[in-house]
Amino acid sequence: MSDNNGSSTGTAEEKKECFKEFVVSDKFKKMIDEAFKKTKAILEQRRDDLNKWEYDQEHEFSTIFGIEGKELITIKYYSPGQQIDPDDAEPMPLNTPSEIEVYAYDFMRDGVERLLGICNKIEVGDRECDKNSIFYRYGNFLNETALKLGAARISKGQTLNALPDKYKERIHVEILHRFKEINRLTGRDSRVSTLCHELSHLVIYKENGVYYGGMGTDDILPQGIKKTNDNYTKHAAGLLQKKSKQVFNNAYNVERYFEIEI
C-alpha cells in the first residue's frame, strides 16, 4: 500500500499491482522536485563563483575548507574495467584506484562541473513501480522514506565504467525517512546540501584522458568511532580546524560548500 507521500509499504507481490500513474497529491514528488531544482541552481551558482574567483570567492573557499585553492591535494580515480571491492572484502590490487595531485581549486571547479553534468542527465519523474525494488521510483529517485536509516544514500559505484550517456539509466538516489524531516530547502543541514553530499560520493572515472563521474568523496570517521551523524559532523569540524587536506575527500566537509542561500 502507499500513502500520500508516495511511500510504498507493501510486499513485492502487492507492488506488482500498483498504479503507474501521476498522483497530483503526491507529496514526495513535490518535495524532491523542489529540492532537485534548487540543487541545480546552487551548483550553477558555485560554478559561477569558481569561474569568477576573485578575493571574495577565494576567501570564502578557504574559510569553508581551511585550505587555499592553490594548495595541492590528492584525489582518487578509477579506470576502465575496475570494480569497487565490498567494504568487508579483502581489497584486490587490480581494483585499487589511481591517485593524482591537483590544486584544491581545480578539484572543486571540475567536481562542481561534473555534478552539474550528472544533474542535467538525471530527472525527477512520475511515480512508477521499480522492478528491482519494493519502493516507488520517481525518475532517478527512489522513495524509501519508510526506511528510518538516515536522510539519503547513493551507491558510489554507479559512475564506474559509465560515460554520461549512461547516467540516466544507471544512477539512482535513495531518499530516506529523515529527508522529510529536514525543514530547510537550502543552507546548513538542508535538503539541497544533503543531495550535494550524496552526489559527491559518486566515484571519479577516467576514460581516454577525460574525468567523468562525481567527486569520489567518502563519509570519513576514525576507526572505532560509532557511525552517527553527530560524530561525522564533529569529525568534519575537526578536519577543518586542523586544516587537513582530507576535507576534500570527506563528504561532510564538501557539502559545506553548497550550504548557501540564493
Describe the structure.
By secondary structure, this protein is an alpha+beta fold. It contains nine helices and nine strands. It is 35% helix and 14% strand. A hairpin with a 6-residue loop joins strand 3 (127-129) and strand 4. The radius of gyration is 19 Å and the shape is globular. The protein starts with 11 loop residues before the first helix and ends in an 8-residue tail after the last helix. The model is unreliable at 1-25 (pLDDT under 50).
Summarize the entry for a quick read:
Helices cover 35% and strands 14% of the residues. It is of the alpha+beta class and 262 residues long.
Give the domain tally: 1
Overall mean confidence score, pLDDT? 91
Q: What percent of residues are in strands? A: 5-15%
Q: Give me the secondary-structure category.
A: alpha+beta
Give the helix level as a range of percent: 25-40%
Query: Termini distance?
Result: 38 Å
List the helices and strands and how they pair.
Layout lengths: L11 H4 L11 H26 L2 H11 L6 E6 L20 E6 H16 L7 E3 L6 E3 L2 E4 L7 E3 L12 H4 L2 E4 H5 L9 H10 L3 E4 L2 E4 L15 H13 L9 H4 L8
Parallel strand pairs: 5-7
Antiparallel strand pairs: 1-2, 3-4, 4-5, 6-7, 8-9
Helix pairs in contact: 2-4, 2-7
